[in-house]
Amino acid sequence: MSDDMRLLVYTFDSMGRAEQARTALEALDQQIGERHGHFAVVQKAGDGTISLREPHDLRQEIAQIAASVAGGVTWFLYTFVGLMGTPPAFMAEQATDEAAHRMVRDSGFPDQALYEIGEDLAAGSAALVAVVPAEERDALVAELKRLGGRLWEHQLPAEVSAELRASAPPKG
User: Fold this and answer.
1) Which band of pLDDT confidence, cut at 50, 70 and 90, is reported for residue 172?
2) CA dihedral (76, 80, 81, 86) positive or negative
3) What is the pLDDT of residues 84-108, one digit of tens each?
4) For residues 1, 60, 40 and 172, what is the CA-based torsion angle, rounded to 10 degrees?
5) pLDDT in tens, 43-82
6) Quick one: which of 170, 136, 131 has its CA closest to 153?
7) Strand 125-133 to strand 50-53: parallel, antiparallel, or no bridges (unpaired)?
């Protein structure tokens, strides 16, 4: 297998289409053989808020779980003693999320790069971001075309491809 990797950014008019594309690409990636690709979905809500879904980024998953637990416990404790629990719970969630993002290594796409993609999206739209081996590119792009959207594609430099392969998530 070559070290030639492709960065695909496929934009969609809705989050639902981007999620369908991510699910289809992950399934196709596993059918092709060993797990080589990495996928993320970036969404820009109607109010301009940008959200990221990166299933294989442990930092994001840990931060979400820890923030939810910290917020829930804080809300429960404040409400139990008869105080308004919502504002402290929100602050606990934010502080825990920020701490987890500082302490846990980003194992996926750099969050800043994904946010920059999100800034360029139209409100209410989404993008699927994928890094895949060049030999899998045609099958994956054919699947994306079936779902609609617009493709932006770049070949990654060899040193970036080698680094991505070295830090790839476990196959399975």
Assistant:
1) very low
2) positive
3) 767 877 888 888 877 765 666 555 6
4) 40
5) 898 899 988 877 655 556 666 677 778 788 887 777 777 7
6) 131
7) unpaired
| Whole-number Å distance between alpha carbons of 23 and 70 | 30
Percentage, residues of the chain above pLDDT 70: 73
Sole residue written with tokens 């392969």: 165
What local confidence, expressed as pLDDT, does residue 1 receive?
45
Q: Give the SS3 label for residue 6.
A: strand
Token pair of 162, please?
């080698």
